Amino acid sequence: MYAADDDIEFIGSATPFGLKTIESLLATVPEHRGLLLAAARGFTQYAYVYIQVPSDELEEHDVSAAYAQRARARRMYLRARDYGLRGLRLGAALQVQAHPAGALAAATREDVPLLYWTAVAWAAAISLGKDDPALVAGLPAVDALVNRAAALDADYDQGTLRTFLISYEISRPNAAADAAQRSRAHFARAVELSNGQHAGPYVSLAESVAAAIRDRREFEALLDQALRVDPAARTDWRLANVVMQRRARWLRAHADELFPE
Q1: What percentage of the chain exceeds 90 in pLDDT?
Q2: Nearest to 125, CA basis, from 65, 84, 180, 155
Q3: Which domains does the chain have, with CATH numbers?
Q4: I need a labelling partner for 21 at 20 to 30 A (CA). Which of 27, 111, 215, 257 fits?
Q5: Tens digits of per-residue pLDDT, 132-181?
Q6: Alpha-carbon 243 to chain mean position
């Protein structure tokens, strides 16, 4: 129901009530995997759309407020991660960090949604807490979650995992020498799987690869392509496309700052 809406602010007002309802239900049925997945996904999405992204826009006017927003987003991501770990029946984060690959060996294809959302939440928290050694120590566990999900179903959710991998290949621990080429391969597959109807892959490649190699022409071309996606073409992706297009417009408007002469 939320995914088909095109009003970001309206959904933002409704989401906290929905998330607290999920948490209330989990107090009664704490091991319900469907609710744990909904919590992991919901808190991750809310943290990104309504806390982290706005912090970038806020930073232009109030740096301290922007940092406070990012700290809040980090807490939300960790909340999402912990729900995901519960859904995967992996216990506490420290236990997973001790032997990440072994902990995930029994995961199956039906676990991919939880593997994905747990990894995304954890990676996002680390990206906002690089000055916290204890948090950064979770990188191998994130890598194990991503690798297991990709091994089980690399094309999960019509390219959702591929879209994440576009940026993750560049930032993963001990990134490969051909990380940019890997990112481009994930991009091509994500566009194929979504029939070019999702703005996410274009924005991700622009932010992670084009910006990294200082290619402003490609950066702007990718964002323009994201803005040409019709949100009405796929109602189940409407809200996600509206969110990504808002991000694309902000990036486009700040290209001079991202690519200084």
Answers
A1: 85
A2: 84
A3: 1-151 (1.25.40.920), 154-261 (1.25.40.920)
A4: 111
A5: 999 999 999 999 999 999 999 999 999 999 999 999 999 887 888 899 99
A6: 12
* CB-count burial class (<10 Å; 0-12, 13-18, 19+) for 226: buried
3-state secondary structure of 25: helix
Per residue, what are the HEC states of 45-97? Answer: HHHHHHHHHHHHHHCCCCHHHHHHHHHHHHHHHHHHHHHHHHHCCCCCHHHHH
Tell me the residue type at 243.
V
Q: Do 25 and 260 meet the contact criterion of CB atoms below 8 Å apart? A: no
Among all chains, which residue has been given the structure tokens 């910006």? 211
One-letter amino acid identity for 85? L
- Using CA atoms, how far apart are residues 189 and 234, in angstroms rounded to an integer? 18
pLDDT per residue as tens digits for the range 30-68: 999 999 999 999 999 999 999 999 999 899 889 999 999
Cα(39)–Cα(82) distance, integer angstroms: 10
Dist. CA 219–CA 212, nearest whole Å: 10
Tell me the pTM. Answer: 0.94
- Cβ distance 245 to 227 under 8 Å? yes
Q: How far is CA 248 from CA 53, 95, 156, 203, 259, in A?
A: 11, 38, 24, 6, 15
Residue appearing with tokens 């209330």: 24
Please give the Cα distance from 251 to 210 (Å, whole number): 12
- Alpha-carbon span 216 to 33, nearest angstrom: 44
Place of tokens 């994930």: 186
